[in-house]
Structure of TraB/GumN family protein:
Amino acid sequence: MTHDNATPLMQEPDALPSTSGPLKTITVGGTRYTLLGTAHVSAESADDVRQLINNGTFDAVAIELCDARHHSIDNPDAMGEQDLFQVFKQGKAGMVAASLALGAFQQRIAEQSGIQPGAEMRAAIEECRTRKLPLLLVDRDVGITLKRIYRNVPWWQRFSLFSGLLGSVMSRQDVSKEDIEKLKEGDMLEATFSEFAAESEALYTPLIRERDRYMALRLAEEAPPGRYQNVLVVLGAGHLKGTGEHLEAPLPENPTAERESLEATPPPSKLWKAMPWLITALVLTGFAIGFSRNTELGWQLVIEWFLINGVLSAGATIAALAHPVTVIATFFAAPLTSLNPTIGAGFVAAGIELYMRKPKVRDFSTLRHDVTQLKGWWKNRVSRTLLVFILATVGSAVGTWVAGFRIAGALFGSGTS
């Protein structure tokens, strides 16, 4: 893409109604982009959007949504309509659980404040549909953002980060006024991670800075200079400055290449990929060393491995209130799957739970509301199956490390002959 102007012209919006949120107008190559900074928990912001669109000035509207979030607004029950078996098979259970938790947090805020977060985005969708205006979705997919956050932060911070996320959004305590104020500056992810993002460059980059750049690149693709005359860009106030600065600067001639690079998920390190195989090799080597010393020691190590891994993983499924058959099957499966990196205990546990307790139509229809309460995660068969998967996986992982250290201690401890 090329710009007709080397330097964009800046001008104040004219003939537009006054708004509660900030406006910034940038003209590039004959196209005027009017950026409206909104508060995601604000009836005023929704009114701003309606007034601007109905003003008749704009021939296209771009909003801070991705395809997935746009679909969830049009079809609120879409999350519950996914094929659960495929969710587990593709390794998306954690992502789905996090999305449900974020949705629960959103619902709690709506109940408390009387305002549905993202009301201004809904207003834009409805008004564009009514006036038959092009609607451009310019934000990055929320799943990709979560994955890039996960890959970007050091591995030792990942558990505390995401356990804090799930803990905060599943809590039944009232959402503080401070949290609601944070939502007026950023979206659900930003409000949830704001405590960490302020002090972590590794988190701030994929959560804020990359998305500012991404939205500017999407505008360059979907609404390049000359395609439309006046484009309204609706985005959270926290993104107004960054996205505006990117639009003001010359954008690359091929924005698609850079945009795709911001969608790529950094691959795990070779060491991290090799870790499951390395652990398996070490455990099997431990068994071999034990049997080479004496048969009794070898069987002791094998039995301890099975008991520790099986009990911890099965106990985790009990915490998820899994079916008794699931618990028993997980007890026997976990020690074996821990020695086979191609299949996990969580996958086996969830598969059996799905077979024993097939979710019913009402489970899918009430999923969105059930997960707003902590007990609802165990009551609903869909969310409970997700818990079975996650807790069985965690239990098996803990069991692997505990049993591994027990084997090492038995073989190389000071009291071993």
